[in-house]
Amino acid sequence: MKKTAIVTGGSRGIGFAIAHQLGLDGCNVVIMATSSEAKNKENLDKLKDDGIDYLYVQGSLGDSKSREELVNKTVDKYGAVHILVNNAGVAPTVRADLLEMSEESFDRVMDINTKGNMFLTQAVAKQMLKQPMEGKKRGTIVNISSCSAVVSSINRGEYCVSKAGISMLTTLYADRLAGDGIFVYEIRPGVIATDMTSGVHEKYDGLIEQGEFPIARWGASEDVANAVSAFCGDKFLYTTGNHIDVDGGFHIRRL
Ligand SMILES: NC(=O)c1ccc[n+]([C@@H]2O[C@H](COP(=O)([O-])OP(=O)(O)OC[C@H]3O[C@@H](n4cnc5c(N)ncnc54)[C@H](OP(=O)(O)O)[C@@H]3O)[C@@H](O)[C@H]2O)c1
After folding, report:
1. Residue nearest atom 7 in ligand 1 by C-alpha distance
2. How far is CA 33 from the centre of its chain?
3. Is 66 in the pocket of ligand 1 (CB under 6 A)?
4. How many CB atoms within 10 Å of residue 2?
5. From 56, 78, 159, 185, active-site residue
6. pLDDT value for 193
7. How would you classify the pairing of strands 243-246 and 28-33?
8. pLDDT over 70, % of the chain
9. Is any ligand 1 atom within 6 A of the Cβ of residue 88?
10. pLDDT (tens digit, 9 = 90+) per residue, 40-58?
């Protein structure tokens, strides 16, 4: 039976690569993003060209009505949700020192990155629980956090806190849902070339040149998508609650 995968923030960047890969793996894909379907035509046409069946749902992960609509529209069209990739995320609009960070920015980043992930996962898990087990698994949830879940950046503290929260909610949902055959994983990307990092390209070019990353190159969205694809297959049936770093070895402590 064809599986259905929801990918938040699947219109561009890492999320689009994930949606594309899961589509190539044989899934129907449901993409959620705040911009219109028309604005993302170029990427969506690539799905069409590859024969991938998709549904585009415009809305914000930070908004409870949008989350509800996302699940309802998915079930209306495809009848089930087998995979959820919580990918959408935002950086602070202003990189401010921790002592200057505003409450508004903290709330915005936490609402989208962490609260959105927490409650969309809750809604999708409830839907998955209505569905039958298929072999040893009922569903897969993959959370895209960041190396920032554990690495300090004092000029975007709210982002780091939001991503650390995703690590804990991965643990919580993995624990809660393991007995029901729903497995939950976390991917911590390092520096990946997307719109999100376009404003700090020079800074990261410099760090790569200085040898900060053992695999000395920018990560590609496809590097993350391939890891998601691996978790969503049937190779990790005795594994849940784990994270994998897709960061060129950046997490390795060195002397
Ligand atoms: N790039 C990196 O180096 C890097 C490293 C570590 C972790 N990450 C994480 O990986 C994920 C994807 O990053 P990216 O680099 O691909 O980011 P990006 O290029 O900025 O793309 C973000 C995606 O999320 C969507 N989005 C933004 N706000 C949303 C909202 N409120 N509701 C629903 N969708 C929303 C965007 O579409 P619209 O604009 O249409 O809403 C877009 O599809 C994020 O969680 C990010 O924190 C990225």
Report:
1. 146
2. 12
3. no
4. 10
5. 159
6. 98
7. unpaired
8. 100
9. yes
10. 999 999 999 999 999 999 9
